[in-house]
Amino acid sequence: MKQSTTFIPYQREIFAPETVLSKSLDFYQLMNQRRTVREFSSQLIAKEVIENLIKTASTAPSGAHKQPWTFCAVSNPDLKHQIRLAAEAEEYENYHGRMPEEWLEDLKLFATDEHKPFLEIAPWLIVVFRKIYDEVDGQKRNNYYVNESVGLACGLLLAAIHQAGLVALTHTPSPMNFLAKVLNRPANEKPFLLIPVGYPAENTQVPDLKRKDLDEVSVFFE
Asked: Which of 67, 88, 35 lies closest to 149 in space, CA to CA?
């Protein structure tokens, strides 16, 4: 039986064309300063900030509005230590046999290895889980376009982190199943991303990289 849907008026301020142009440029210039950072300060960040970041991420569109994500925010030192130990164990295997030579060669740009101290130094870790299905009244209800939906939410999360004046790292210590175990997550949740969040350490440096030009990432049909 088809469920009825209640529709409400769409409400937000509509800007003049010249304002739209300036806002689009301003936001691009802000986001173009975003960089992945691996050197974090231990300076504390209020829980309310993390709550706001997660609420922003949860405004992302999702398949059938299922919102198939769980954001686990971790500041507990013991849990962060467990996550670091497990992540470094997986990363050691990656750097010493799992990763093909081409991958290792590409990673040299970033001077990374299996040591991940930022997992304990950063004041917060946001572990993003994708929900394959939901349990509703004891029944499994499938979610749709789960990877796409969670990816969109993570993109908004990274933008929100940068807009707040903080830095982040999209860490993927593959395989990541240990995160579900450490955080005692249910069977329908699978790890998607591990994101340390905080202020950059003093004198932080990042690789001197260049983003692709517009004509390398877009095609216009006018």
From this structure: 67
Q: Is the peptide bond before 175 cis (omega within 30 degrees of 0)?
A: yes
Q: What is the pLDDT of residues 23-82, one digit of tens each?
A: 999 999 999 999 999 999 999 999 999 999 999 999 999 999 999 999 999 999 999 999
- pLDDT band for 3, please (50, 70, 90 cuts): low
Q: Considering Cα of 145, then 146, then 149, then 155, what sign does the dihedral take?
A: negative
Q: Are 169 and 196 in contact (CB under 8 A)?
A: yes
Q: Are 182 and 117 in contact (CB under 8 A)?
A: no
Residue 129 lies in a domain: yes
What pairs with residue 134 in β-bridges? 141
Residue 160 located in a structural domain: yes
Task: Tell me if 129 sits within 8 A of 70, measured CB to CB.
Answer: yes
212 in a structural domain? no
* Dihedral of alpha carbons 68, 218, 195, 88, sign: positive
- Indicate which CATH number applies to the domain containing 83: 3.40.109.10
Residue 4 has pLDDT above 80, yes or no: no
What is the number of domains present in the chain? 1
Q: Is the pLDDT of residue 187 over 80?
A: yes
Q: Which domain holds residue 144?
A: 37-203
0.90 cut: is pTM over it? Answer: yes
Domain-located, residue 219: no
Cβ neighbours for 110, distance < 8 A, ≥ 6 positions apart: 38, 207
**What is the model's pLDDT at position 2?**
57
